[in-house]
Amino acid sequence: MGTVMIVLHVITAVFIVGPMAVIPMTGLRTLRSGNASAVRSLAKSTALFSWLSLLTVLFGFGVAGMWKISMGAWWILVSTIAYVIAFVLSTFVVVPQMRKAADQVEGASAGTKPAAYGAVAAFSGITSLLLLLVVVLMVVH
User: Fold this and answer.
1) Local structure of residue 92 (DSSP, 8 states)
2) Where would you tag: which of 52, 61, 64, 84 has the fewest CB atoms within 10 A of its CB?
3) Ramachandran category for residue 34: left, alpha or beta (phi over 0 → left; psi -120 to 50 → alpha)
């Protein structure tokens, strides 16, 4: 059963957390092209993948429980804190800023970068770096 939990943890990390980190970067390219409806769609996808990423955490805690890994281990604590910050940034900062940027693109002339572009770029970048830290900690330990 422990092997199944590890496989589920890794699969959800790759196919759910990966897109959670990458989709906003695609949104930036789409913002530059001025396609507001595509940005809204990407914001919905980012929100969905962010919420689904909780499955990865659930499976990770399942692995820790089955293998008797202490939840107080420093790398588990750092990974959990980094993930929680990434989840909050993605769900409550990046997604709303993508929606705001889509609204700004809709009312702007072609080729104009929306004011929310910088916030999407900065916070999605921070989210990706935090998720990378989680991956590195999991692989090293």
Assistant:
1) I
2) 84
3) left
Kindly report the average pLDDT of the chain as a whole number.
Answer: 94
| Nearest in space to 40 (alpha carbons), one of 50, 32, 30 | 30
Q: Which residue has the tokens 């809204």?
A: 40
Q: Is residue 19 within 8 Å of residue 52, measured between CB atoms? A: no
- In eight-state DSSP terms, residue 53 is T
Query: How far, in Å, CA of 73 to CA of 6, rounded?
Result: 18
Q: What is the pLDDT of residues 55-96, one digit of tens each?
A: 999 999 999 999 999 999 999 999 999 999 999 999 999 999
Instruction: Count Cβ neighbours within 10 Å for each residue of 117-136 and write b for 16 or more, e otherwise.
Output: bebbbebbbbbbebbebbbe
Instruction: Give 46's contacts (C-beta < 8 A, 6+ positions apart).
Output: 20, 23, 24, 27, 90, 94, 95, 98
User: What six digits make up the tokens of 78?
Assistant: 């750092």
Beta strand ranges found along the chain (DSSP E): none
Whether 53 contacts 16, CB under 8 Å:
yes
